[in-house]
Amino acid sequence: MKGNTQHAPYVTWIWSDREIEEPRQVKAALESMHAQGVRKVRIFLENCSYRFTDRPVLRAFSRTSQWARARDISFWLHLDPRQASRLFISRVNEKLAFLMPVSKAGSRSNNIASVKNSKYELQFNWDIQLSSTMLQEKGISLEPVCLERAFLFRLENGTAVSSTIYEITNESLTQFDMSRRICNVFGIIGVPDDQEWCVAAFPKFDSNLFDYFGRESNDLLCNFVEDLFDGCTHVDGFTWGEGGPQHIADPGLLPASLSLFNSFKAEYGYDIRDRLLHLILPVDNNQHIRVRQDYYRFLQRAVTEARRDFHRMMHAFFYDIKSSYYFSVSACGKSSRLVTGDMDPWQKAIGVSRVFADTDSREAHPRYLAELALVKSIGLCSESGESSLTLPRDIADPLVVEQMNDLMTLFSIRPAPAVTADNDFPSPSRARSGIANQIRYGCPEADTLVIFPMETIISQGIAAAEHIYDTMTDFISFLIIRGIQFDIRTASCITPYNYSSDALTIAGRSYKKIIYPYPAVVEAALWSLVTSCAAAGLPVYIGGSSPSHTSTGEPVTDPLPVSFDPADPGTLPEPALQPLFEMPDGAVGSCFYGPDCLYFMLAPAATGGIYRGRLATTIDVPESSGLKLFRLDADGTHSILI
Questions:
Q1: What's the pLDDT tens digit per position in 11-22?
Q2: Phi, psi of 587 (to 5 degrees)
Q3: Whole-number Å distance between alpha carbons of 368 and 389
């Protein structure tokens, strides 16, 4: 049996070819980590020419797990099915295709062209190599196959007129210029000159990614689990890779396969290929809302169910194994997306022990606070309520690393340093180790629920969806800086709940106010709860727009009034901005309740007073550039623990 490693330091251990081929280095690195107090390691293949299913990798897993077991170190694996894409495709020929290529610069191609003088022509440039360390080819390549669908329609004020949509695939000509990587779709068709008629085309491109929707690929993963077990590997936990480019779905990127099409039609009763236009353009009967919700939710559920199938396989072979969810955040990077490659990461956190995340942020920018709030809230949906975050390995300034780790601790996020054979594990600071012993990384108190507008984002076009993500990043950062203690949730993680005029309680967490930005499209059950809370007297703040439709396309008949603009968070009504406690300017804080006291953390601490309203206590804070932990007792006394 393992020792108590629940709160021990751990690392994400990046493996390349060298770790697989040179076991002595692996053993030496493991001993070094053990000497520095590490009690958990998570192995991650990156920039590696091996698949995790290869025999040398299986042998390396087995011997390293046995060495770890002998040193009382918990051994975790990060298994990304994309790394076995070449094997899966060669065995079952199930590969994922895409119906909307992305240009080399990263911008989406234009699928729509006007009909002029009865002629139309669309040009697509698929000169793309999306970087992906999860593939042996180190990139996602596209290979033209055919024209999947083409549609003629009349456009009015940027909206397609539903009664004028006609499929013209057979009437369209397609030319693929392989040397210049250009696809042309063109033709002649008679339409009235006094109306705006357009054509949308969807050329199909095979990729080197395996098909998540094919069952045979999933069966091959079962063989890997058997090999792992037969090799006497002692696995304590695993993460099943998620996140990254085109892993599941982004608005405007359209994964496709025969298995996907057939399964979708069996579930929803219509062929998504007949409604492809609805995925890129709004339609006057608002049917595009239902189609987009069906399509993107179907993609998410397919990948989630494949992951759960793999979890069941692992649990069948390994005793008391833990499973976790892995995702990426990138609010401070080039992308404005808070979460890359996922539609609803909160839903994916349900049913796993904890969540792991990584970030490309390299400085404690205000947007970094939004990343931390997101990681904490997604981790809250896991069974343990815990989350961990790995920083980039190439941050040059150790003070920046220390500051970012301090901020992680404020959000109850476990720093997970990444190590390779080339660098040593940085010992955890005394402050964070002490806090881990005091509060056990319990989730901070929150009196506010922020609902992330996932249904609205899915229903929007590319530009609108990215604008909402971008605005939400700054909005979340603003709330943190103002001292608001909040959790972020989506419709997928609202149940079970109960409410009164005093609070909405979800899974033991009580919220005294609800903030819902951009609820243009809402999940019907969630909106019913929100309106019921408002009717009961619980403060509800609606931002940006009133709901117009549910996620099934039905009109909303009982909208609540809009009270603020998410793009200008200062427009929130004053009651929504009342913090649990007041802090010095430039500081971030959080609090945790114990049986008979309250723990309060602050970073960075600055000379001044902090008033804690519930305990009517003013704390005299000594100036410090780092993290401070205070204990506030019920009698009003306080003490500095760290």
A1: 889 898 999 999
A2: -110, 155
A3: 12
